[in-house]
Amino acid sequence: MYTIQTGTAEDVSFLIDYLPSFLYPSGERTIVGWGICGASLGGNSTWIALSREPRLTLGIPIVGCPDYTKLISQRAQSSSIPISPPYFSTSLKIYIETHDPAQLAYRAKDASNPFLGKKILVLSGKEDKIVPWVASAEFVDGLEVGEGGVKRVVVEEGAGHECTSGMRKEAGLFVREWLSGAVL
pLDDT digit string (tens) for 7-64? Predict the structure, then answer.
């Protein structure tokens, strides 16, 4: 599952690299801002992409989790599966411990924090049993985006693992504010 998430995040960087040449082959316009939004696995990938791709300035993870170890540990425990080989390899554990967003300096107020200056809208369902809010809460509460950044969090009452109409509306308003240059 983690390879899908990281692969998707890398694909976003490739799109940022190459999409302008296809959209504007004569260089008639320059794309000056990039954003990402994803739900479920795409929400997890959104967190990874935000932590790795400095050209992304807006992110909207929907029912996604920035802390893979916390999420997968809860799932493994509920299924009586140990977080050890062969289910959770040592090399994967080491990779996650050095690359997962929750392992980075997300609380720092200096350049070591890859989230500084980013505008992030977190959308989760309070009743989500697949990606429970409790797996993300500590990270999101501690997330520092700095003076130029925005952190907005909506944990929707009664919502499960879904992208509700309320979440879609919140996302649309957030993107509209970002595109208009309004202070979020």
Answer: 999 999 999 999 999 999 999 999 989 999 999 999 999 999 999 999 999 999 999 9
Helices (H) and strands (E) in the chain, counts: 6, 4
β-partners of residue 17 are none
Query: What is the DSSP code string of 91-122?
Result: HHHHHHHHHSGGGS-TT-SSTT-TTTT-EEEE
Nearest CA-CA partner of 161 in 64, 34, 42: 64
Written as six digits, the tokens of 162 are 């879904």
Identity of residue 53: E
Tell me the pLDDT tens digit for each residue of 110-127: 999 999 999 999 999 999
Query: Could you tell me the end-to-end alpha-carbon distance of the chain, in angstroms, rounded to an integer?
Result: 33
Instruction: Say whether pTM exceeds 0.90.
Output: yes
Grouping H, G, I as helix, E, B as strand and the rest as coil, residue 56 is strand
Alpha carbon distance 101, 35 (integer Å): 17
